[in-house]
Specification:
The chain is of the alpha+beta class. Among the domains are: 98 residues, Beta Barrel (Elongation Factor Tu (Ef-tu), domain 3); 48 residues. It has a six-stranded antiparallel β-barrel with strand order 1-8-11-10-9-12. Strands 5-4-2-7 form a four-stranded antiparallel β-sheet, with no helix packed on it. The protein starts with a helix and ends in an 11-residue tail after the last strand. The N terminus and C terminus are likely disordered.
Length: 238
């Protein structure tokens, strides 16, 4: 009896915990959740001590902004020495006291030293917001461990599951009306940027991705409604 109850409990928990594939379509639209259009967690390639954190959670950052640095005094000293070595060899070559091969080797050594320094800095790959900082100054971060998470919420993405019966109507480039929550029921028009070519057999739906601008920086994760206007279902072609 105990084993039977455990079996039933496992089935119940698994059923309740399983994520829904998609909400059914109604006259009010399809319920979906907004997600960031980019969600990136950055790591250092090698272990090292955190020396400088330039940002805090919630900060807006631009692509190539410096986020976090490891302690790199030894690497910077090596880089400086490589620059001096290269300059001396280039000067020696002009006097005939060094070969092209020696200069090329010194240039390679300099390039490697620069790469080592660059790898100890984390730059934002996108325009976005700092969502999570996993480390503190003075802490030793392991190589490839989570260090900082950056998300882009303008534009937002919305994945909706459209009934397979309407697959021929929903096309990349078509429009969709997105209704945000709130008393004002703010709406905006998004663009269909992806339609899955493989339907979900369990729900007979196709995953369809909509991109919508988000100048007001609404947070990702909101429950919204998506409506596909009949006149805008099919992308207009030239």
């Amino acid at each position: 009896m105990r084993n039977v109850m455990a079996f039933i409990l496992c089935i119940t928990v698994g059923f309740l915990g399983a994520p829904a594939i998609g909400q059914p379509e109604t006259k009010e639209g399809i319920t979906a959740i907004t997600i960031p259009s980019a969600d990136i967690t950055l790591s250092f390639l090698q272990a090292g001590r955190i020396d400088n954190i330039k940002v805090k959670e919630g900060d807006k950052v631009s692509a190539t902004s410096l986020l976090i640095e490891q302690y790199m005094a030894a690497e910077l000293a090596s880089l400086s020495q490589k620059k001096v070595d290269l300059k001396r060899l280039e000067s020696a070559k002009k006097r005939g006291a060094a070969t092209n091969l020696e200069v090329e080797h010194a240039q390679l050594e300099l390039n490697i030293a620069q790469i080592r320094v660059d790898n100890m800095k984390l730059l934002s790959p996108i325009d976005g917001f700092v969502e999570k900082v996993h480390v503190e100054v003075g802490e030793s971060a392991q190589g490839l461990s989570d260090v900082i998470r950056v998300v882009r919420i303008d534009p937002l993405w919305i994945d909706v599951h459209v009934p397979q019966a309407r697959a021929s109507e929903v096309k990349v480039g078509g429009n969709a009306v997105v209704q945000f929550p709130g008393t004002g029921k703010e709406t905006t028009t998004g663009k269909i940027i992806f339609v899955s070519r493989a339907a979900d057999a369990a729900s007979s739906t196709l995953r369809t991705r909509i991109e919508v601008t988000n100048k007001s920086n609404r947070p990702a994760g909101e429950s919204i409604k998506v409506i596909f206007p009949e006149s805008d279902m099919i992308a207009k072609s030239d």
